[in-house]
Amino acid sequence: MNDEKDEVTLNRSLGLWSALALVIGTIIGSGVFVRQAAVLDDAGSTTNAMLAWLAGGVITLTAGLTIAEIASQMPKTGGLYYYMEKIYGKVWGFLSGWMQIIIYGPAMIASLAAYLGILLVDFFDMPHSWTVPIALITVALVAGLNLLSNRYGATFAIVTTICKLLPVIALIGFGLFFGKEDAFAQSFSSVHQSAGNFGVAILATLFAFDGWILVANLGDEIKNPEKRLPQAITIGITLVLGIYLLVSFGVFRSMPATQIHDLGIGAIPYMAEKDFGAIGGKLLSIGIIISIVGCMNGKIMTFPRIMYAMARDHELPFAKQLSYLNRHTQTPIVSVITTVAISAIMILFFDADRLSELCIFTVYCFYVMTFVGAFILRKRHPNLKRPFSTPFFPITPIIAIFGSLFVIVSEIHSDLLGVLFSLVFVLIGFPVYYYCRKHYQIQD
Q: Known Pfam families for this protein (predicted)?
């Protein structure tokens, strides 16, 4: 039975376009559509808002360039979990993976599904009682797709990425060619007393850039990963940065800052309907729906790979089942089903959006450790030929470290109880780790 199992491996079939679509698709969800007013409110002017999006993008890009170097040296399934284990040891790798598979990943999937349920109910003018069932059905359908060969999930990622870019291009194009406002000189701090908190504005943009690292979870399924993973991460983040800046510019060219502030999350839907009519508003809604489905697909495709990798290393209970690969599809179907089952429980009984927020602190703690790991690896292997080297080293990883520390400090300042909860949950992983070490008779 073990010999038969060993013959089944993950399918290394994903090329650069698939990896690139997953990077873009897992970053661009609803953030760029709903956070414009929030960033503007905190920045206090359109110029500062644009600078906040730029700063968030630059911090994310430095993080991506740093991880790209590490990924090129160890392009294995599990991504952050694998890097932490190889740099700091098995217990740190386990804790980073534990937090992602039990709360962070499922909560993000559940949060997207819940928001999607609201959008679909509103779009089709259905009773609000249908919100939760639609969220569950959507998660089940996307999960079903990812029980098939990874080619299907990757193709779906490419298609949804192309579709979600169409409304983005429309918003950008209208602002560039028909907008009449000054995108760089509008200020409204006089009507909004809390305006001008530039750091909070950057923090809001960083959350809209999150998700770029998840493609690294597919290291064993990407062709020539030493080269393709760094390319997908760096090109993907750069493209998203350009898209976010252009969308903001288009919005600020099309609407007065005070109106964007007054409309809040309804600013872009209002803009679409005003510029393109009722049909335009509907098309934008469809674009946002597709965007969220594509983002959900990327997360359902990548997070179970962490669970699979941990189970393969005998670091989880029911390791034999969770590390099972279907012989025909070569996908970790039990890990996929388990991940979406946890998400479904969160949709039914918890505030998934709040749960995902609680994990931000610990996620960024592990990010900082991994960025520092780039220095450790260079010192540990000074003569190693790296397939990809972070440009402008050490400045680039230092910016990534300080950007992540900014998020950590901000979380402590704004949500200390949430930070403590997330730390407690990580600590719960210790007995699980040592139970598995003892159960599977693994020596340290």
A: AA_permease_2
The closest alpha carbon to 110, from 423, 364, 422, 339, belongs to: 339
CB 150 within 8 A of CB 11: yes
How many CB atoms lie under 10 A from the CB of residue 225? 25
Contact 56, 205 (CB under 8 A): yes
Please determine, looking at this structure, whether the domain spanning 14-305+340-439 carries the CATH number 1.20.1740.10.
yes
Phi and psi at residue 240, in whole multiples of 5°? -65, -40
The residues facing 187 across adjacent strands are 45
Nearest alpha carbon to residue 39 among 179, 209, 154, 166: 209
Tell me whether the omega of the peptide bond preceding residue 394 falls within 30 degrees of 0, making it cis: yes
For 76, list phi and psi in degrees, rounded to 5: -120, 160
d(CA 85, CA 91) in angstroms, rounded, equals 7
Q: Are 182 and 36 in contact (CB under 8 A)?
A: no
What's the mean pLDDT when you consider all of the chain?
89
Q: Report residue 216: phi and psi, to 5°.
A: -65, -20
Alpha helices per DSSP H over 179-224: 198-209
| Predicted confidence band of residue 191 (pLDDT cuts 50, 70, 90) | very low
Residue carrying the six token digits 């040592």: 434
For the segment 287-293, the average pLDDT, to the nearest whole number, is: 90
Tell me the three state secondary structure of residue 413. helix
Q: What is the DSSP letter of 212?
A: G
Which amino acid, 285?
A: S
In angstroms, the CA 251 to CA 223 distance is 39
Q: How far apart are CA 63 and CA 237, in angstroms?
A: 10
Contact 343, 116 (CB under 8 A): no
CA distance 304 to 306: 5
**Phi, psi dihedrals of residue 124, rounded to the nearest 5°:** -95, 5
Comparing CA positions, the residue from 389, 164, 392, 195 lying closest to residue 283 is: 164
Rg of the chain (C-alpha set): 22
Distances in Å between the Cα of 99 and the Cα atoms of 233, 427, 430 are 23, 10, 11
The backbone torsions φ and ψ at residue 325, rounded to the nearest 5 degrees and listed phi first, read: -110, 130
